[in-house]
Amino acid sequence: MSDLTVSPDLLRPAAAAPTAPNRDKIEETAKAFEATFISQMLKPMFEGLSTDGLFGGGQGEATWRSFMLDEMAKSTVKAGGIGLSNTVMAEMLKMQEGRQ
């Protein structure tokens, strides 16, 4: 008769699923990351635009442009985003499961 061996993985308790508040926090963080990414990707598109002219906002527009880009990015994420937050969230959940 052969000896039976038990894998150490079978002795380890199964990783618990993240709790709802923790999962919500991870989702919030992933969406914030996506918004920051989108904002940084939009920034070069607006750097060369002149703020002078008949309907330009002058120095005030140039000063507050980064805030406008941040809000545009947040609105994009709220409307469904570009799919980056789902990937980031999945990786964060994997990392959390590996830690437990």
TrEMBL record:
Q: Which residues form the Flagellar protein FlgJ N-terminal domain?
A: 43-89
Q: What is this protein called?
A: Rod-binding protein
Extract the Pfam families matched here: Rod-binding
InterPro entries for the chain = Flagellar_prot_FlgJ_N (IPR019301)
* Top-rank taxon, per record: Bacteria
Chain positions covered by the region annotation Disordered = 1-25
